Amino acid sequence: MFLLKYFRGLFAKPSLAIQPMQQTTCLTDIMAAWPILKTGTWHYGNGTDIAVRIVESPLYSGSGDYEDPPEISDDRDEICYCIGYEASGCPAKFIYWLNIPTLAEAISLTEEKFPGIRWDAVS
C-alpha cells in the first residue's frame, strides 16, 4: 500500500498555482542610472552609427575570484569610469568596459578603441 501511495505522488498533476517570477536587476540597468559625462557617435564599418558614452561609477568592481587577494577580488567604494557602447543591432543596449581610473584615461581609451568618434557638444 505504501508503494502505491508513493508512486501516485510521483505522477500527481503539478499544482496549477503559478508563482510570480522574481524580478532581477541587471548590472546594465544599474549603470543606466549612473551620471553620463560624455557622449558621442562612432561610425561602424557597415554604415551603422554606434552610440558611445562615458559614465561615472561609484563602484570599482573586483574580480570576484576567491583565488585573488582581497584588494583585487573585492568591490570597492571608489569612483571610476566606464565606457559604454551600443551593441550593434541592439539600439539602446550598452556593453561596458569597467574600472578606468580617470576620466582622461577613459576619453583616451575611447578615442583609441573608436577611431574617428564624433563627441557631442557639452550642454
Gist?
By secondary structure, the chain is of the alpha+beta class.
Present the secondary structure layout.
Elements: H1 2-10, H2 27-31, E1 36-43, E2 49-57, H3 70-73, E3 80-87, E4 90-100, H4 103-113, E5 118-119
Antiparallel strand pairs: 1-2, 1-5, 2-3, 3-4
Task: Give keywords.
123 residues, alpha+beta, 5-stranded antiparallel sheet, 4 helices, elongated, disordered N terminus
What features would you describe in this structure?
The chain has 123 residues and is α+β, with helices and mostly antiparallel strands. The protein contains four helices and five strands; from the N terminus they run ααββαββαβ. Strands 4-3-2-1-5 form a five-stranded antiparallel β-sheet. The N terminus is likely disordered.
Sheet with the most strands, sense and barrel status = 5 strands, antiparallel
Radius of gyration: 23 Å
Instruction: Note the overall shape.
Output: elongated
Low-confidence stretches: 1-7, 10-24
Give helix and strand order, one letter per element, not per position: HHEEHEEHE
Total number of helices = 4
> For the terminal residues, how far apart are their CA atoms?
79 Å
* Beta strands, count: 5
Q: Pairing-aware structural class of the strands and helices?
A: alpha+beta
